[in-house]
C-alpha cells in the first residue's frame, strides 16, 4: 500500500520517538495530539485532546475507519474529556495534493448533479402529463361512442354532449398548461446548464493557462540553473587557458573526427561568437531569403528547441556565410552586394559596406550553390570576407574588414577559382579551401597566406577532412557551411540536418 498521510494540526514543536525495529512503529506527539504509526500494518492511530482531527488520505485504496465505542478513548477522546467530531478524508485519484480539483470545479460538479436530478424530475412529470392526455383522449372517444347510442332529439343528449365537451376541454387545457410549465422549467434548467458549462470551460481554460505558466516557470528555473553551472565551468576554463588568449598557432596540421548534433532543419547556418567565451549559439535556417535569427544558450538547447531569444531582422540575409562576432551579426544582405552588420544588443543596423563588382545570386558560389557568393569568416586576426568579382574572373578574393565600421582594410587576389571550392575557412590569416562539399573524406585543395602572399594548390591527401561525422559511408556529406572558432580551435559545419564540429590541430613550433 502506497499512501501518504497529511495530518493537519496546530503545533509549534514535534518530537519523534522510534520504537523497537521489530515492531516497525513510530510515535509522534505534540502538545495536542499523539499519533502512533504502524509501518508494518500501514495503520495510523491518533489521540487528541478534544480537538477536531482532519485526516487527508492520498491513496486510491486507503480506508478510513470510524472508531468503535470501545476505541473512543484511543481515537476520539482521552481521559481529560473532549470529543471527536468524526473524520474527513479525500481519496487520491492519482495526482498529488497540489493538483486536486479546485473549489470552483467541485461547485460546478455539484451544480451539474443537481441539474441532472431536476431534469429527471421534470422528465417524469412530462411523462405523467402525456399519459393523462392519452387517457383523456381515450375517455373522450368512449363518451362519444356512448352518445351515438342515444336518441338525437333528446334534450338530455344535447346537454350530455355539451358537458362532455366542456369537461374534455377543461381537462386538455389544464394538462397542456401543466405540460408547458414543465417545459419552461426544463428550458430554464438547460439555460442554466449552458451557463454552467461555459463557466466550467472558462475555469478549465484558466487552469490550463496556469499549468502552462508553471511549466514555463520550471523551464526557466532549469535554464537558469544550467546557465549558472555553465558559467562557473567557463570561468574555471578561462583561468586555466588564459595564456592562450589572442594566441595565433602555427599552420594547420590536421582536422580531427567530428561530433554530431541532430537538428530539425535540413539546411542552416550555426554561429558562435569567438570574441566571447560563451556557449551561446545562433542559428539561421537556409531558405531563399531569411530574416529570422534564433539564439540558444547552449548547443543542447538547439536539440530540444529551447530558444532563448528571437531576432526579426530589418533586412533579409542570403547564402550560408553569416557569422556572429563581438555581439553583432554579419551577413550578406539579400539581393545586393552589401555586407550588413546588425548589433544584437541594440537590435539595429550598425554598419554596411558594398563589395563593388562582387558576384551575387549564384554568379560565383561554392560548389553547392545556395547563393554562397559572399562568405564571411572569423579567425584570430579578426573579420574576413571571401568572394569573387568580375575583375578577378571568378578567382577567390579575400578582404579584411574592420569589425566596427566594415571598412575594407586590405584585399588580396588569389589564383584559384571560387566555383571549384567546396568551402573555405580562415585560420591566422591563412585561407583553407576544401576540395569538395560532399566527398567523405575530402582534403584541403588550396591555401593562401595573407602575410606571405603565397598561395598553393595541394594534391589529394593534404590535410584530410572527413567532411562528415560518418565519413566513408554510403551517404554523402552536404557541408553547406564551414566556419572556424579561434577560441575553441574547432570547425563548425552544417550537413544533412546535423551541426557537426571538428577539432583543428596545429604544427608544433620549432
Automatic annotation (TrEMBL):
Residues 65-90 are annotated as: Disordered. InterPro entries: Olfac-like_dom, Olfactomedin-like_domain. Residues 247-508 form the Olfactomedin-like domain. GO terms for biological process: signal transduction. It is found in: Secreted. Its main location: secreted. Keywords: Secreted, Signal. It comes from the Eukaryota. It holds the Pfam family OLF. SMART domains: OLF. Residues 1-16 form the signal peptide. GO terms for cellular component: extracellular space. The keyword Zinc does not apply. Residues 65-74 have a biased composition (Polar residues). This is Olfactomedin-like domain-containing protein. The lineage of its organism: Eukaryota, Metazoa, Spiralia, Lophotrochozoa, Mollusca.
Amino acid at each position: 500500500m502506497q499512501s501518504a498521510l497529511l495530518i493537519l494540526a496546530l503545533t509549534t514543536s514535534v518530537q519523534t520517538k522510534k520504537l523497537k525495529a521489530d515492531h516497525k512503529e513510530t510515535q509522534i506527539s505534540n502538545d495536542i495530539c499523539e499519533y502512533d504509526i504502524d509501518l508494518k500494518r500501514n495503520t495510523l492511530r491518533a489521540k487528541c485532546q478534544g480537538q477536531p482531527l482532519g485526516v487527508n488520505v492520498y491513496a486510491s485504496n486507503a480506508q478510513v475507519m470510524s472508531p468503535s465505542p470501545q476505541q473512543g478513548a484511543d481515537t476520539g477522546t482521552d481521559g481529560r474529556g473532549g470529543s471527536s467530531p468524526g473524520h474527513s478524508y479525500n481519496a487520491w485519484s492519482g495526482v498529488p495534493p497540489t493538483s486536486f480539483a479546485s473549489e470552483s470545479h467541485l461547485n460546478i460538479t455539484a451544480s451539474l448533479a443537481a441539474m441532472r436530478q431536476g431534469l429527471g424530475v421534470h422528465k417524469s412529470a412530462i411523462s405523467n402529463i402525456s399519459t393523462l392526455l392519452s387517457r383523456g383522449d381515450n375517455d373522450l372517444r368512449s363518451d362519444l361512442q356512448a352518445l351515438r347510442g342515444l336518441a338525437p332529439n333528446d334534450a338530455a343528449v344535447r346537454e350530455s354532449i355539451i358537458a362532455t365537451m366542456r369537461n374534455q376541454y377543461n381537462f386538455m387545457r389544464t394538462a397542456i398548461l401543466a405540460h408547458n410549465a414543465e417545459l419552461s422549467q426544463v428550458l430554464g434548467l438547460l439555460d442554466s446548464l449552458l451557463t454552467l458549462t461555459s463557466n466550467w470551460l472558462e475555469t478549465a481554460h484558466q487552469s490550463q493557462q496556469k499549468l502552462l505558466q508553471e511549466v514555463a516557470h520550471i523551464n526557466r528555473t532549469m535554464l537558469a540553473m544550467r546557465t549558472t553551472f555553465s558559467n562557473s565551468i567557463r570561468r574555471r576554463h578561462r583561468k586555466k587557458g588564459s595564456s592562450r588568449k589572442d594566441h595565433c598557432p602555427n599552420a594547420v596540421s590536421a582536422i580531427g573526427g567530428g561530433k554530431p548534433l541532430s537538428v530539425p532543419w535540413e539546411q542552416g547556418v550555426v554561429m558562435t561568437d569567438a570574441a566571447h567565451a560563451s556557449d551561446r549559439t545562433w542559428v539561421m535556417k537556409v531558405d531563399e531569403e531569411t530574416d529570422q535569427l534564433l539564439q540558444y544558450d547552449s548547443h543542447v538547447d538547439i536539440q530540444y528547441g529551447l530558444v532563448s531569444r528571437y531576432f526579426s531582422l530589418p533586412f533579409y540575409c542570403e547564402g550560408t556565410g553569416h557569422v556572429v562576432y563581438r555581439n553583432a551579426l554579419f551577413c550578406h544582405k539579400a539581393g545586393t552586394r552589401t555586407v550588413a552588420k546588425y548589433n544584437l544588443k541594440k537590435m539595429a543596423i550598425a554598419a554596411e559596406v558594398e563589395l563593388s563588382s562582387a558576384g551575387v545570386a549564384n554568379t560565383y558560389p561554392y560548389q553547392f550553390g545556395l547563393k554562397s557568393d559572399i562568405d564571411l569568416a572569423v579567425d584570430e586576426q579578426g573579420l574576413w570576407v571571401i568572394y569573387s568579382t568580375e575583375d578577378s574572373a571568378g578567382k577567390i578574393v579575400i578582404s579584411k574588414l574592420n569589425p566596427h565600421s566594415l571598412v575594407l582594410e586590405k584585399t588580396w587576389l588569389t589564383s584559384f577559382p571560387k566555383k571549384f571550392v567546396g568551402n573555405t575557412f580562415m585560420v591566422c590569416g591563412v585561407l583553407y579551401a576544401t576540395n569538395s562539399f560532399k566527398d567523405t573524406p575530402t582534403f584541403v585543395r588550396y591555401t593562401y597566406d595573407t602575410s606571405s602572399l603565397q598561395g598553393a594548390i595541394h594534391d589529394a591527401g593534404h590535410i584530410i577532412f572527413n567532411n562528415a561525422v560518418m565519413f566513408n559511408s554510403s551517404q554523402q556529406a552536404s557541408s553547406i557551411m564551414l566556419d572556424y572558432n579561434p577560441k575553441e580551435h574547432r570547425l563548425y559545419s552544417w550537413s544533412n540536418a546535423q551541426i557537426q564540429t571538428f577539432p583543428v590541430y596545429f604544427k608544433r613550433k620549432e
